[in-house]
Design goal:
By secondary structure, chain A is of the alpha/beta class. Chain A has helices spanning 53-75, 109-113, 215-225, 232-239, 259-262, 265-268, 274-290, 350-357, 364-374, 434-437, and strands at residues 28-29, 35-38, 81-82, 93-102, 134-138, 143-148, 160-166, 174-181, 199-203, 241-247, 294-298, 328-330, 335-339, 342-347, 404-410, 414-419, 425-432, 439-444, 450-457. Classes of the chains: A alpha/beta, B alpha+beta.
């Protein structure tokens, strides 16, 4: 198979030979796959009157028992687990609580409006970390500053952790961390054996309607997947792509014109929103795909969905043509689905971007891995990431171990196989922005190998070293 | 596989596209243009290039290739690459790939391409126009991909049901534009859409009212058949309800003397069951309109019942049908109406002739509509309707007189310009007062009304017309004379 093994393809250039020699029809059938989607991220009751305290409380309550188990496993039963109010000085103990990162640079609306600060504008930064940041652990009642092993730089607010250490008698109010642990990765369903090669294509950030939109490459992608381009072997390999996952940002940021909200109605009456044309293009683009393959569309940061996580599926009425097909699956962000028994979990990248902003983690792959280790898909929600005020359930807690865990709309493609303590193997993927790289990612369901696939229209020189400006 | 004659035909076609039309011919464009399988298109392009390269005169075209294969990414990781490349760089790209998995012609053109924008644009239009055909020509078939059933997944929401309605209206508009003799399709559909949807809302209400009408006691004392008011009312309803009304009236033969209350109930029940069976109308849209228009309807029903008492069944039916007909022309597509009228210019103002004409077009239209809408009308009712229309033609109409006049109409066209045109219109006699009122005002008044509130018309007109009905009979004749001279 072309996409997974490096074997030479036969029949290359067959269409460059004369008709008389080749009288063969090449017809392939799209390989089928079973798709189950988990709707745990679908928000049913829309109640926005609640406080976020419930969400933190729920998160701590749900994860406390798991952390307690993990702590016992790691440090043994001998060490007492204390709540902060029951803390004894100089006693080595375990504290389970929510991490809170105190950050001076964190943008705050209160700071902006407070009188003392209103002359000092907030610095605009891409990253809000500072050397003076402090890490604090909170349980239901109290908080205490953490010092020691647990690094502030690589932690973020909202993570539930168990810390081992003590509060020294001479330094009250500070907890010296000796060691720490997070929830254990839940056990994984065994991966089903799949005989034939099947692929899932991950792609994100088409950004219709934006400056960077790469129409030609998108057309190539659609043509390749739908079996219009390539020699017979390539076509055969393409027919093995059984699912396409579009992980967010189908529309560009420039389609969101927030000015229209502040403008007078009579001024904007005639003008239609910028997203209208873009979503129409998206619809016809999707048409080319859905007539040929199953497509899952997740909303992203700039898509016409709600802002807070979990983002709800794009409404089918926005995609009047493509939504007529049963092969179009509009999903939530984050989303969890099972394709051929392979459990796939991922988001359109907002939680990862947010972690990168509020910590000193550099690569999105590392951030992605961390969310898996922490056992929470979006720990910074609701602190710095918009989130629905859940009350009795935090759907972002990792309660089932996926086989593929991805984040869309990232800078570049990267992958890693994360090995869990009880032999779980999770393929971590960051999906590059198609509008910037022209790349998508093919994952074999058989072997869980990932390979990027790129689309170029090289005029005039096809080379990686070339100026990428020509590629646009 | 294409036979030889087909092959040569294709080759000739390609040559024409490239040499004569100076087009960019991509394999996708060719496949959609000539309905070829994509692989045959690739081959055909290759054959073309091979044959014409040898001739020096024809050899002046450029070829781009599609190449795919295994290459290296920036970090040296293996990456599958798909490249569209001009011929000059073909070997270069091939060499950069460790394994080549595909290599075929992507496009042939005379011009030297600077970038691929023109390639994209070539494909863009034809693909967008043939979205559903694309898959048939592809070499990968996907039996899974089927259309969802028309009952949308989210029937619960009101939005979806109205969406369906809207679609139907559009279809209806298209059909009507086809059957129209000389009106521009665009104008018709544009006008028909919004009104259709509004009309749909009231449709069920209208049916219900008919039920009321026929059963109410025959004691009303009204002088005239009160065309204007019924017109105003009917305006907000599509022809769809005709069948329903007819069927109701046909039943009336049998049970003329039945109690009003029970009949009313029955009728509404019937309507409900029919509607629920055929349409995905939500209950809310059904139940709301009746309330709002109830008071208006009550008056109408009294007036109407006088007719039904005096005249025999058939006449009533005919009359009723005719009213709706003219209304429909008025409300949904004025241009069409005008064109019809112009054809019939020479005919007598008494509407026998044009009624028959209209009747015919109406019959067609009505039928088509019914098909599209899966409307309430059952098969036998439809037949009966046709019969009655015929009889109406033969008998002609008694009371209606129509006059022709020129009125200036102002409306906002598609581009947003305000256009004022002089329109010749046939007006029924009893409408004259209304028109007269409008005529006496400065011209600006009606134009304003027209341009601003096109959508609101059906509702907005009703009260004003009603008010205008009240003047006495004697006045009308004199007005008639006035307009005839003109």
């Amino acid at each position: 198979m072309i996409y997974s093994k490096l074997t030479a393809a036969e029949n290359v250039g067959i269409f460059l030979t004369e008709n008389e020699t080749v009288n063969q029809e090449f017809e392939f059938v799209r390989s089928e796959c079973s798709i189950e989607s988990n709707d745990k991220f679908v928000v049913r009751d829309r109640n926005f009157n609640r406080q976020y305290a419930h969400l933190y409380a729920e998160r701590l309550m749900t994860m406390r028992s798991r952390l307690s188990e993990a702590a016992v496993k790691k440090w043994g039963k001998g060490i007492p687990q204390r709540k902060l109010h029951g803390l004894n000085s100089d006693e080595r103990c375990i504290v389970i609580g929510t991490l809170f990162k105190h950050m001076e640079l964190q943008p705050s609306i209160l700071k902006e409006v407070s009188e003392e600060h209103n002359l000092m504008p907030q610095p605009i930064k891409s990253r809000y970390t500072d050397s003076k940041d402090k890490l604090i652990i909170e349980d239901e009642l109290q908080r205490i500053i953490l010092v020691g092993q647990l690094k502030c730089q690589s932690s973020v607010t909202g993570v539930i952790a168990a810390v081992l250490g003590m509060e020294p008698d001479d330094q009250k109010g500070k907890f010296y961390v000796e060691d720490y642990c997070f929830q254990e990765l839940p056990s994984q369903m065994p991966r089903p054996m799949i005989d034939e090669e099947k692929f899932i294509l991950f792609v994100s950030s088409f950004e219709f309607g934006g400056q960077e939109e790469r129409s030609f490459q998108m057309q190539m992608l659609a043509d390749l997947v739908s079996g219009q381009l390539g020699d017979p072997d390539q076509l055969k390999a393409s027919s093995a792509i059984c699912h396409v996952i579009i992980a967010g940002n189908c529309l560009s940021r420039s389609t969101q014109d927030r000015d229209s909200l502040s403008k007078a109605k009579y001024l904007s009456k005639k003008s239609s929103a910028g997203s209208v044309d873009a979503i129409r293009s998206l619809d016809s683009f999707l048409m080319e795909l859905v007539t040929s393959v199953d497509v899952t569309v997740m909303p992203g940061e700039y898509d016409p969905s709600n802002f807070t996580l979990p983002q709800q599926p794009l409404h089918p009425c926005m995609l009047p043509q493509s939504s007529r097909y049963n092969t179009l699956h509009c999903q939530t962000n984050p989303c969890e689905l099972t394709v051929e028994g392979i459990r796939i979990l991922g988001s359109s990248g907002q939680p990862i971007d947010d972690i990168l902003r509020y910590s000193e983690i550099d690569s999105s792959l590392e951030a992605l891995e961390n969310t898996l280790v922490w056992g929470h898909l979006a720990p910074t929600a609701p602190d710095t990431l918009g989130c629905y005020p859940f009350v009795k359930d935090d759907p972002f807690i990792v309660s089932e171990c996926p086989h593929i865990y991805f984040a869309g709309c990232q800078k570049e493609f990267s992958r890693k196989v994360y090995k869990g303590p009880s032999h779980q193997e999770v393929l971590l993927l960051t999906i590059p922005k198609f509008c910037q790289t022209g790349e998508a990612v093919l994952v074999s369901l058989k072997t869980l190998e990932a390979q990027p696939i790129s689309f170029h229209g090289h005029f005039p020189i096809p080379d990686e070293q070339m100026d990428t400006g020509l590629d646009k | 596989m294409a036979t030889n004659s087909e092959d040569t035909l294709i080759q000739e076609n390609i040559e024409e596209y490239i040499n004569d039309d100076n087009k960019i011919v991509t394999c996708r464009w060719l496949s959609l243009m000539l309905n070829l399988n994509i692989n045959d298109a690739k081959r055909a392009l290759n054959t073309f290039v091979k044959h014409h390269r040898n001739k020096p005169a024809d050899g002046l075209f450029n070829v781009t290739y599609f190449i795919a294969g295994l290459g290296k990414s920036k970090d040296g990781e293996p990456m599958h690459k798909c490249v569209v490349v001009p011929e000059a760089h073909l070997e270069e790209v091939k060499n950069s790939l460790s394994i080549v998995t595909s290599c075929h012609i992507y496009s042939v053109q005379r011009a030297k391409l600077k970038d691929y924008t023109s390639l994209y644009l070539t494909d863009y239009d034809i693909i967008k126009n043939n979205l559903e055909k694309c898959q048939l020509l592809s070499s990968i078939k996907c039996p899974r991909a089927t259309l969802r059933q028309q009952s949308k997944p989210s029937v619960k929401s009101e939005g979806s049901s109205s969406e369906i309605k809207f679609e139907k209206d559009e279809q209806m508009a298209v059909i009507s534009s086809k059957s129209a003799t000389s009106s521009s399709a665009k104008g018709v559909s544009k006008k028909a859409e919004p009104k259709g949807s509004i009309a749909n809302m009231f449709a069920s209400a209208g049916k219900k009212d008919k039920g009321d009408e026929k059963t109410s006691p025959v004691s009303a004392k009204v002088n005239e058949p009160t065309e204007p008011s019924t017109k105003a009312k009917v305006k907000s309803k599509p022809t769809e309800k005709k069948g329903g009304v007819l069927s109701l009236f046909s039943k009336q033969e049998v049970k003329n003397a039945e109690n009003a209350e029970t009949n009313k109930e029955k009728a509404s029940e019937k309507e409900r069951s029919k509607a629920s069976a055929t349409k995905s109308n939500t209950s809310s849209t059904k139940s709301n309109p009746p309330k709002t228009s109830q008071t208006k309807e009550k008056k109408n029903m009294k007036k109407r019942t006088k007719d039904s008492g005096d005249e025999d069944e058939e006449i009533l039916e005919r009359k009723h049908r005719r009213r709706i007909r003219t209304d429909l022309f008025d409300s949904s597509d004025e241009e069409e109406y005008v064109s019809d009228v112009e054809e019939e210019m020479e005919m007598s103002p008494v509407a026998a002739g044009d009624a028959s004409d209209e009747e015919d077009t109406m019959g067609e239209k009505g039928d088509e509509e019914k098909q599209v809408k899966e409307s309430v009308v059952t098969e036998d009712v439809k037949e009966k309707e046709n019969i009655t229309t015929n009889s109406a033609n033969a008998g002609g109409c008694r009371k209606r007189k129509r006059t022709q006049k020129v009125a200036s109409k102002t409306f906002v066209d598609e581009d947003g310009f305000i256009v004022t045109t002089k329109v010749t219109e046939w007006e029924s006699e009893s409408d004259d007062e209304v028109m007269e009122v409008q005529e006496q005002k400065p011209v600006i008044a009606p134009t304003k009304k027209n341009s601003v509130a096109q959508k609101a018309e059906p509702k907005g007109k009703a009260p004003s017309k009603k008010a205008a009905v009240s003047p006495q009979k004697g006045k009308q004749t004199s007005l008639m004379a006035f307009f005839k001279k003109k």
